Amino acid sequence: MSWHSYRDFEQAVKYSNRYIRSIETEKFLQTLLATSEEFKERIEPGIIFWRAQLGYKKNEAVHSDSVHFPHACSPYPPERMKPRYREAFAGRVNPKGIPCLYLATDQKTAISEVRPWIGSMVSAAQFKTHRELVVINFTEAKFDPYKYKNLEIISYEREPEPNVRKDIVWTEINEAFSRPVIPNDQVDDYVPTQIIAELFKDAGLDGIAYASSLGSGHNLAIFDIEALKIVNCFLCKVKKIDVDYYEPGNSYFIEDEEENKDE
Q: Cα–Cα distance between 139 and 134 in angstroms, integer?
């Protein structure tokens, strides 16, 4: 495994061979399986996770001879808080039509993941595990290049040691799963992570855990949508959005020609 193995895999399955994969791609996937043992995590029965969906149920208004009760709001019913078989949209973990249960470790992260705006109404439910689950926890992959003093390693002018290469690859996969899903994303943007998720699904794992780029908690995607039971549901109204940003490109400035003429 090279330090850039995930990047090569990503390019190959997006732009070269997707369904009949190359020897190099298959070798990468098998190496991923072989190095996955330390990233396996057991989740005991009775653990609570959160799931959120934009929207709510609008109950019909009630009328009587003397009183009018306006529409009452309530969270979505239990069946609406789970993905629908054969109607699932494509995501980082699942292809279109094959549902999985996207969850988060806390309520705020779950709500943040649906990207609401100020004033949005969000249905947020708690789900409880009712059997032991074994997942691949990509959040355990934490490569920090600054702890390596050798500049050649930091700049990747040569292949680093095997354990460093593994840390780099697993960290990049965690970042790929964590990348926010944007409505106008191309379907092929999801292909690399979908293939990796299906690799572990086929190996008997129950799901994937990965970092959230929108909240402080972690995300969890469970392949069997019946592996957790809904225990309650709340209706939440978003009152504040905290925007953080950086400038990824160079700025530019427009000169005032009239002002220059005066000079």
A: 15
Question: How do residues 62-75 score in pLDDT, each as one tens digit?
Answer: 555 555 555 678 99
Distance (Å, whole) CA 148 – CA 145: 6
Q: Give the CA dihedral 107, 108, 111, 114, nearest 10 degrees.
A: -130
User: How many Å apart are CA 16 and CA 10, to the nearest integer?
Assistant: 10
pTM of the model: 0.85
Classify 119 as helix, strand or coil.
coil
How far, in Å, CA of 86 to CA of 246, rounded?
39
Give the three-class secondary structure for 193. helix
**Residue partners of 178: CB distance under 8 A and separation at least 6:** 210, 211, 212, 213, 219
- At 7-65, the pLDDT tens digits run 999 999 999 888 888 999 999 999 999 999 999 999 999 999 999 999 999 876 555 55
Each residue of 58-96: b (16+ CB within 10 Å) or e?
eeeeeeeeeeeeeeeeebbeeeebbbeeeebebbbbbbe
Residue 248 backbone phi and psi in degrees, to 5: -80, -15
Q: Are 219 and 178 in contact (CB under 8 A)?
A: yes
What distance in Å separates the CA atoms of residue 165 and residue 185, rounded to the nearest whole number?
29
- Angle, vertex CA 135, rays to CA 132 and CA 140, nearest 5: 130
How far is the C-alpha of 163 from the C-alpha of 153, rounded, in Å?
A: 12
CA distance 205 to 41: 10
At 73 the three-state DSSP class reads strand
Distance, in Å, from the CA atom of 75 to the CA atom of 82, rounded to the nearest integer, reads 13
